[in-house]
Every structure is written in structure tokens, then in C-alpha cells.
């Protein structure tokens, strides 16, 4: 119908309808340049990725006292990188024992091995913050179909009593209608084996009509991770092995007995022995000796 034949009252209405349809129409996805880096940070607010040119990590050979879990994670990640079946992984346990460091170190090692194969695409590591886990579907939509394997990594994942975002995570990991993309694995670290605090589980048992079902809904989240890797507090021997490994790697020249005495005292003042404590002592020692560790 020619515009001249339209009723003066009808034209504004049609204009508003057209504008409304434009607003609700699906937006074309912005191009993501995954060649910019091998590691990215996901920003939920803008649905965008920031490339990380230099990842804060240590060499996998410097991670001591975690040999079994290291080998299991390397094997799982290597299978995934080759397009074979692999499991989502939950790294749980004692603080400061290298959970997040291991994820980043394994990513670097796998890519180093794949660099020798000209046909192999590098694996991408994408960090998603704990408070953004409910945007995982949007993140996965952007990487689905990309010609790279992706490890989605969430550090210090846990849920409190009023937090319901764990439900969306459960669906994304296994139960969603689309399922997890074949080129995506999800790795998470947590101090809690079941990702929820014990008092939260006990409160559910005491107040729910069916206590078993109430607790099961939250605990079953950890079941979505096929690979559970436990990190336990280290012995003094393991702690000193970490210290000497760092000292040798960075060329810190000091009598072995002196390093051990200082490292033990350092751990005692902090009330804990861990890989993080060993690293903090090495930072102090390197500073005193005028050496760089970066």
C-alpha cells in the first residue's frame, strides 16, 4: 500500500511496531579473534573476551607433592586436546597447594607439545569469574563451533545458602538441552569437595520436608565433574622439596641448611605449610639476594 494511502493515525503505530521488532530481533554475534592469545578472561557484562598475553603461572616441573593429580589432569587434558572423550575436572582441597597453578601449568604444557604438530590447533584457556557462572551458556555459545579446544576455568568455585546459580551450572555441565560443546571442558578449583559449606548441608537437612532430596540437589553438582582431584596438606619434607625446587630454579645461592631453617620458620609464623607458603618464602629470599623470579 502506498504511504500516501495510509491513514494518518495508522502510520505512527506501524512505525512503533517496526522499531519494536528491530529491538527484539536476534543480534549478530560480534566476531571474536581467538588467534589474539591462548588465554582469555570472560567479561559477562559485555559478553566479551579479553586476551591475556602473559599468563601468571609457574612451570609444571616446579609443582611438587602433587604428582598423582598432576599426571591425571595432564592425561585428561591431553585426551581432550586430541578430540578424545575427557571429563570436567574439580580440583578441591587444602588452600595454597597449587590447584589453580596446576590448571594453568597443564594448559601451557599441552600447548607446548601441540606446537610441534603443525596441524594441531592450540588449546585456549578462558577464565570465568565465580560470580559470572550463570553466564556460562552465553560463553559457550560464543566458543561453540570455533576451531579450537577450550578449557573454561573457574577459580575458587563455591556456593552459599542463598545462591541458586549452581542450578544453571549443573544444566550447562551435563543436563542442558544442547549439552556441553564437544570443544569445551570445564575445570574448577574449590576448597570444598561438594562446593557448598557443611553448615549449609546440615541446615538443609534440619529444615527440609525431605532432607535427603534437599541436600542431594546441591551435592549432585559435584557429581557433574567426572574427575575429582584432591589436594591435601603437605608434609614438611614435601614443603622443603618445594622450597629447594624454587631455589634451584631461580639460582638462589644460600647454604641448604640455612634455606631449610628459614623456610621452616617462615611456615611456622604463618601456621601452615603449602606451595603458596613456599613461594612466598622464595619471593622474600630472592628479594634479599637481589634476584628476579619473574
Describe what this molecule looks like in 3D.
With 294 residues, the chain is of the alpha/beta class. It folds into 2 domains: 39-231, Rossmann fold; 236-289. The protein contains 10 helices and 7 strands. The chain has helices at 10-24, 67-81, 99-114, 136-143, 166-175, 198-207, 211-223, 236-249, 256-270, 275-289, and strands spanning 39-43, 48-51, 89-93, 124-127, 150-154, 184-190, 227-231. A 7-stranded mixed sheet has the order 2-1-4-5-6-3-7. Helix 2 (67-81) packs across helix 3 (99-114), helix 6 (198-207) packs antiparallel against helix 7 and helix 8 (236-249) packs parallel to helix 10. The protein is elongated and about 95 Å long.
CATH architecture of the largest domain: 3-Layer(aba) Sandwich
Q: Cα distance, first to last residue?
A: 71 Å
Alpha-carbon Rg, integer: 25 Å
Mean pLDDT: 84
Strand percent estimate = 5-15%
Summarize the helix and strand pattern as letters: HEEHEHEHEHEHHEHHH
Query: What's the CATH H-level superfamily name of the largest domain?
Result: P-loop containing nucleotide triphosphate hydrolases
Poorly predicted sequence stretches spanning 5 or more consecutive residues: 204-210
Structural class by sheet pairing and helices: alpha/beta
* Count of helical regions: 10
Percent helix among the residues? 40-55%
- Assign an overall shape: elongated
**Strand order of the biggest β-sheet:** 2-1-4-5-6-3-7
Determine the CATH topology of the largest domain: Rossmann fold
Instruction: Please write the CATH class name of the largest domain.
Output: Alpha Beta
| Number of E strands | 7
Q: Major beta sheet, specifics?
A: 7 strands, mixed
Q: Any idea how many domains?
A: 2
